[in-house]
Amino acid sequence: MGKVALGVAVGCAVVACGIAAVAVGRRARSRRGWGRAVALLKELEEGCATPVSRLRQVVDAMAVEMHAGLASDGGSKLKMLLTFVDSLPIGNEKGTYYALDLEGASFRVSKVELGGSRSMILKHQVELQVIPQDLMTGSTEGLFDYLATTLEHFVGREDKGCDDSDDKIKELGFTFPFPVKQLSVSSGTLVKWTKTFAIEDTIGKDVAQCLHEALTKRGVEMRVAALVNDTVGTLALGHYEDEDTVAAVIIGTGTNACYVERVDAIIKCQGLLTNSGYMVINMEWGNFWSSHLPRTPYDFDLDDDSPNQNDQGFEKLISGMYLGEIVRRVLLRMSQQSDIFGDSAHHLSTPFILSTPLMASMHEDDSPDLALVESVLTSVLKMPKVSFKARRLVVRVCDVVTQRAARLAAAGIVGILKKIGRDGSGGVASGRTRGKPRRTVVAIEGALYVSYPAFREYLNEAVAEILGEEVAPNVVLRVTGDGPGMGAALLAASHSLQR
């Protein structure tokens, strides 16, 4: 072999060795990158772990905080607000009633005809309206005039042709899902706006009176017979359909709970008297906090970046507003410490780009190649060509975050049952009747529970685990349909002056 040929051969060998070395290096870096991603997943799993022992600690903490909130205002993170609803619909309500359900950026008006026997709803008409953005930040008069105008038109259409439509003042149930200091069952002053509302001159005003004045100005003979929040409306409908319903929980974009409490247990209102001896308590449980709640660095960072830092701690762990965002933060950390998503993961830096519904769709993708996961990663997060192995990792992250949320929500529900003696733990109010566990129904609403099967299954399983095989079969978690609106109309009926 000549010197030239030998040189060429040696050069080719060097190049080949170099290429091989680069390939080996890339594979090694890829393995190291994948190892870092898997390590982050294991850390997340450990940080979000909710064994039954921990859930029972959360149950006990919830019950303790409920006691503290009933003992004094400010004694607990739980507000434990009086609603002045001392009786719930029992099925003998009769007549025609209206409801206005303010949901946030939209609202529903409805008309309900009740037949006077349990679960006998003869007719139910509903109309959905969107609130113009400028009215959410304008004036009190502008917002309530718009609500009253919609009600006027709705009543006019529904009552057209009815001979007795103007014989008496119409009764209205008003669902108002914002913090309110309740003054009576039919009145309450706004403490603060949430969501996207910011009408300063409404704060401190009686919102029922604001609506009444707007209706009167338009000549609509209608009275607010019940002012409630969405959880109380859900409880009312649940009790109307099943008299063993003692609590209601909403788990959607936000979360809250209410339940029926003995008046003598409300220490901060000693001397309070009701005909029934009971009162519905609005817990505002989104603000619940305990050191037993499992938090990860992603949760701490989310709280630091939120406009309500150190508030709504429970809500930030379990509600639909935040689950997708927690997953995004986990995936962002993985992209920063590994190359499993390639070089196009910069969109993961956008807060709230991954909504909880999209996260849920990825979590429940049952296609063989996880095509839906790939679609979300490509179209929403702009990360094309993510490997199947990495897509499986994404699904696992969604699962860990969802499972923690559902199991903590379950612990909160059992905490309520423990407080009212329906968890079978023993004592005077042990949830037993003549030695047998007492049947207990919890009404549930909200898209996270109703429309997310994996979340619902995790929650139901956790409730059964915490309660045990003897008590669990006697606790029923029941979905109500249109609880906030229908329940408000039912409460208007049960508290109507015509009765």
TrEMBL record:
Molecular function as annotated in GO: ATP binding; D-glucose binding; glucokinase activity
Gene3D superfamilies: 3.30.420.40, 3.40.367.20
Domain Hexokinase N-terminal: 41-240
GO process terms (BP): glycolytic process; intracellular glucose homeostasis; response to glucose
Pathway: Carbohydrate metabolism; hexose metabolism; Carbohydrate degradation; glycolysis; D-glyceraldehyde 3-phosphate and glycerone phosphate from D-glucose: step 1/4
Gene Ontology cellular component annotations, sorted alphabetically: cytosol; mitochondrion
Swiss-Prot/TrEMBL keywords: ATP-binding, Glycolysis, Kinase, Nucleotide-binding, Transferase
EC annotation from Swiss-Prot or TrEMBL: 2.7.1.-
Transcription regulation among keywords: no
Entry keyword annotation includes GTP-binding: no
SUPFAM superfamilies linked: Actin-like ATPase domain (SSF53067)
PANTHER family (UniProt xref): HEXOKINASE, HEXOKINASE-4
Name recorded for this polypeptide: Phosphotransferase
Source taxonomy: Eukaryota, Viridiplantae, Streptophyta, Embryophyta, Tracheophyta
